[in-house]
Amino acid sequence: MSARFFIGSAAAALVLAAFWLAAPPVFATDTPDPGADAKAFRDYFTKKYPSVKLEDFVNGPYSMNEDMHRQWEEKEQFPPYEFALEAGKEMFSKPFKNGKTYADCFEDGGIGIRQTYPKFDDKEGKVITLELALNRCRESNGEASYSYLKDEMASLTAYMAFTSRGKPMDIKIPNDPRALAAFQEGKRYFYTRRGQLNFSCATCHVQSPGERIRAEVLAPALGILNAMPIYRSEWSGMGTTSRRFTTCNSQIRGVPLEPQSDEYRNLEYYLSYVSNGLPISGPGARP
Amino acid sequence: MSRNNGGNMCTLALSSLLLIAGLTSVRAASEADYKTAYAAADAAEKEAGQLRNQWTTTESTLAAAKKAADAGNFDQAVALSKEAEALARASIFQANSEKDAWKALEIH
Question: What ipTM describes this predicted complex?
Answer without folding.
Answer: 0.84
